[in-house]
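Subgroup meeting minutes
Present: P.N., E.W., G.H.
Scribe: E.W.

1. P.N. recapped why we're keeping a running log of single-chain structure predictions: easier to compare across weeks, and new members can see raw inputs and outputs side by side.
2. G.H. added today's entry (698 aa).
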Amino acid sequence: MNFDYDVAVIWSGSGGLTVSIGLAAAGKKVALIEKWLIGGDCTNYGCVPSKALIDIAKNGKYTSVSDALVQVRKRRKNIQDEETPDKIEAHGMKVIQWFASFKDDHTLHISPSDLTPNSSPSEEKWNCNTITAQNIIISTGSHPRFCDGLEDLKKEKILTNESIFELDENIKKLLVLWGGYIGCELAESFQNLWVEVTLIQRNSHLIPREEKEASETLKSIFESKWMRVLTDTFIVSSDGSSLTVKYKSSGKTENLDFDKVLLALGRSANIDGLKLENAAIEFSEKWIQVDRYNRTNKKHIYAIWDCVSENPQFTHWANNEGRGVVRNILLPFPKSTTRKAVLPAVLYTNLEVARVGKSSSDLEKKYGSEWYVTKKMDFSANDRSKLTEDEIGFVMIHFARISGKILWATVMWKWAGEMISIITTAMQNKTSAYKLAKVVFPYPVKSELIKKVCDSYVLYTLTNIKSEIWYFFRSNILQISVAILWISLFVIFTIYKNTTWLSVEELFFQMYNFIVSSAIFGPFLFIIAYVIRPLLLLPGSLATIMAWALFGFWPGLLYLLIGAIISADFFYILWRIFWKKMLHEEGTGLISSLKSKSDQSPFMAILMTRLLFLPYDLINIASWVLKVDFKAFNLATLIGIIPGSAVFVYAGTAFYGQEITSFSDIWENIDISTLFIAWVAFVLISFWAKYLKKKYGK
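Output recorded in log:
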């Protein structure tokens, strides 16, 4: 099929620009479709104007909101002038300033938009034109979210990040709902412009995703600026000029009057009007579902940034995902994912809060408080800070015990965003505290405090080495026991092999003939051998050969099924014990991409792998990594291995009753017709399994 374009990119936010410019530079024919302003949220009503306002407001030069916002718009225009359609097209793409929606999975309707941020064209405009593309990238961003209790607010009283920078009037009272990144940054900036700001946060902490110490410090700073900060506070109702809130601690209510209300309640994906159903793209009411490569269920259609389920809503994450999409379109094999990248985040208040990793509450919930060590130092311990008299703030890092792996870090300082990349780089490259402590920092610099925190951890570990070693053995006793068992089996096997001077083939047939001669204990010995063979890294096919020739069809099938089920459960549990702490994060590669499918239907996921004859032991391992429900795993394994086991055991009857002393003996006097029937059955089962997968698998 001939397409109008190699790639069509829907909307021109940060992620969309990254993809379209990157692919156009590589020679792809690209259409960039934008219904409103080039640059999307970040350039027009996000990062660019907000950071300009922060800088203008904290300098204290302006006491008038309208005057300050005039300067914000001037600075924003410097960026906007670099992102005009003509300048973007100079990169080698076509810019189409219309609204895009799906006609099918390769075809887009493009319709004249109403040129407003969140509008969709009326129905009569849907079918103006169509374009086709081999690949389509959805990068539609998000819009401000509303909540209950605000229904009676007058529209002209409401501000969002999409309207606040266009204010041309001075206001005296501003209510900000809620805290978080947008709320805190803009609340502080307006307070610096002598607006009376009340910041309302429904959570107990002002910035709930950050460390408690950072939240408390920031709240204290805000209150020192005469800003009113209300935490654990909920909206009850509103009218045209006041808002009624309720305090969780006391149960009391209060009416708050205002000139304007800024909504910073979070973001919702821009997917309305895209008609994703026409392309059979899987999505919920809120988000689009993607895999680890940012592909939708239609593998040639990608989605990035805020419109993606559970995505971090940061511009730098959009750029990260955009680069990954460019790479995978240009070089499909092998694909790589950027969705596992270590993500830093910065709250750009006057005293910035930068963090990377998981918070202490997340770590404690997932692993327990004993699993990590926290070290914190204030900037008052830094010589440069003493000299420049800016000692407020701290560096806090959570380290994994023994290994020194950095799990989470928070830097709170006026230029914390410039410092956090040191720790992000260390985490991305798995640099431990021990290695980071060896890095030489120039004296005196602020970032030396990171080294001092690492030094503190290293010193703690060395001075408590006995308790740390005891912790390691105590917390890994099951893993150590399994390792000893594993090693012991190898040692016993090796010693026996070396003392008997037998080859692997001779050992195999010695076991075979031993089971044959043990009429009573033969089935029991076979089942035990099948169960423990994964520990000796022996393939299941080799053990299955023994069932073929040892017992005939029905007994062989029965003993094989018993051994296979016990082996599957044994290896599932063994893997869970041994790797529990080493694989505490989500898996990568094929295992990671299968996780969402196994979560949807664990029984069908395991059943398909068994029917399709995928490596038996690998599936047992993967089932734990995917955290497949144990009951579903057992039932699917029992049902799924019956057809294949029956085929292989039936094939084994071609050898049944032979005197076997070597592999060459196997191929003498075999029943070719039995093997042929087994091969036909194998092919039929494979096709049947693929049919089931296509019909019922996701």
